[in-house]
């Protein structure tokens, strides 16, 4: 009985997510009403309220899923270049989800959270030669690398993945590695 209920919940959430994706192609999130979302998904309002309070909750749930997938990538490798490549491939493999998260939501928030995890996974001391000359700049260099990586990924997603994941990953890796050699 519980398994059947779980499948219904998954199906309802899938319908609502797909309807939200369709509506976001023509509208901003703030312009989408619950009534319109439910009508597009062919789901009644009670079903919507059983899982969410507002349409933004669907997007937040999606962002959390993306964060979890990217976190799993981080746990797969202890090589920075490989983590960057796997992350880019993950985003490229689900283009629609990536576009929604990075153009309609706050994808930079997900990337910031992931990059904080990356920072913990790859300590700065292991990445950058700490000398008396570089020590004051380490935090700034890391911040620059983080914000720059986010900008490159957002631009890539917003430009409809014009470059392959491997090229974007190579570019980010190159820039990060150059920063590490300050």
TrEMBL record:
The keyword DNA-binding applies. SUPFAM superfamilies: Homeodomain-like (SSF46689). Gene3D superfamilies: Tetracycline Repressor, domain 2. One of its GO terms (molecular function) is DNA binding. Keywords: DNA-binding. Residues 33-52 bind DNA. Residues 10-70 form the HTH tetR-type domain. It comes from the Bacteria. This is HTH tetR-type domain-containing protein. It comes from Epilithonimonas lactis.
């Amino acid at each position: 009985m519980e398994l059947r209920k779980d499948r219904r919940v998954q199906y309802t959430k899938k319908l609502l997510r797909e309807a939200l994706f369709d509506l976001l192609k023509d509208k901003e999130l703030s312009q989408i009403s619950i009534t319109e979302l439910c009508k597009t998904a062919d789901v009644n309002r009670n079903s919507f309220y059983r899982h969410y309070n507002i349409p933004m909750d669907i997007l937040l749930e999606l962002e959390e899923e993306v964060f979890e997938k990217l976190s799993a990538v981080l746990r797969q490798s202890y090589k920075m270049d490989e983590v960057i490549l796997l992350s880019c491939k993950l985003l490229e493999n689900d283009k629609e989800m990536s576009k929604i998260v990075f153009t309609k939501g706050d994808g930079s928030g997900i990337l910031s959270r992931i990059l904080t995890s990356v920072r913990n996974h790859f300590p700065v001391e292991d990445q950058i030669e700490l000398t008396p000359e570089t020590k004051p700049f380490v935090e700034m260099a890391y911040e620059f690398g983080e914000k720059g990586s986010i900008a490159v990924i957002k631009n890539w997603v917003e430009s409809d993945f014009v470059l392959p994941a491997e090229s974007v990953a190579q570019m980010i890796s190159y820039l990060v590695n150059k920063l590490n050699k300050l």
